[in-house]
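Following the same procedure, backbone shapes were mapped to integers, as reproduced here:
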Amino acid sequence: QVQLQESGPGLVKHSQTLSLTCPVTGGTVTANGWGWIRQSPGKGLQWIGEIGRRGGLYYGPSLKSRASTTRDTTNNQITLHLTAVTPEDSAVYYCARGTPDSVYDYWGQGTHVTVSS
């Protein structure tokens, strides 16, 4: 059973960099692609980006200039960095496992991030 659990600071100051980690158990990070998705209060899911199984990086257009994701094979985890955050980046952030069918089949429980103004 694949399990993911996002972790992060919870509260970040305006203009700082948000860093999240997502340790993976029950699977290896080199076997799949891994995505990051967020949901802001009152809004739908927003895809942030993904690191593919072969290490390719893909980002949504609105966050492409500020987001970066990496894969740590030593600790078997995925990381997300989001620079220059604003209160509009306050959201629940999820990591998820990608499949060859371009869907995410396993999700973490999400971690709530608030950006102070």
